[in-house]
Design a protein that fits this description.
Layout lengths: L2 E4 L6 H11 L3 E2 L4 E4 L5 H11 L3 E4 L10 E4 L10 H7 L4 H12 L5 H10 L7 H9 L7 H10 L3 E9 H11 L3 E10 L2 E7 L5 H15 L6 E5 L5 H6 L2 E5 L3 H6 L2 E3 L7 H5 L2
Parallel strand pairs: 5-6, 5-9, 6-7, 9-10, 10-11
Antiparallel strand pairs: 1-3, 1-4, 2-3, 7-8
Helix pairs in contact: 3-4, 4-5
Length: 276
Amino acid sequence: MPRFIIHSSELDTNQTQQLSAELGALQKKANHFQTQSIDIDPQKVKQLSQKLKIDINALPESFEPSKVKLVISDMDSTLISIECIDEIADMMNLKAEVSEITEAAMRGELVFEQSLTQRVNLLTNLETDALQRVYDERLSLNPGAEDCLAGLKQKNIKFALVSGGFDFFTERLKQNLELDYARANKLGIENQRLTGKVEGKIIGAQAKADFLHELCEQLQINPSQVIAIGDGANDLLMMKEAGLSIAYHAKPKVQEQANTALNFSGLDALLDFINA
């Protein structure tokens, strides 16, 4: 019998009545509600979620919350609220052009590696000071990120940040947020200016999935003990390998393929799956 997570700490009378009628009797947990229900049309659940503006997710029967040991997360538009490359491009008055390519890549309409090469080339000769300006002036965590990370630390669950973006940002976030692991692309730099190239192998969809397996081997855990969260098409291979995948305010293609989706909640709602 499917178990549903209702990602809200408080429900009004109307919400309680509608949820109970559709999904069955509700059980209050620390910061969310749960219910078990006979098989119900997933489309009907989506419609109810949209109507009430509350995230509702069915837990996969194979997922065991108590065994989770690792959360692996995308960076841009997942852990943080911006797409770093778009904001870097804004320093050259190229944000509209680069953002269009970024959006198409995240929707899965372009090969990620090719799209990144194209976008980075547009940044040629930009002074590296622009990267620090983006970090200082424009980068912010998405709502609930700090509570999510604190909750994971309390349960001794490791957190890995993996990005098709740049290690300039992932490494600073790793240090400032005390993250366990981070991996991203390295921008070529000469004479304090960007060369317009990425150094080494590009961190694309397959590299993200490979990183998940690398960490599983290092931690001596099974991929079923991993939660993967992302928003773009280049996260899908990684998400398919995990015991639970979460589409976070994601592109339609990602929402269609992920186990679960968070469209109204902040990142702290990830803890609802672990505390289920």
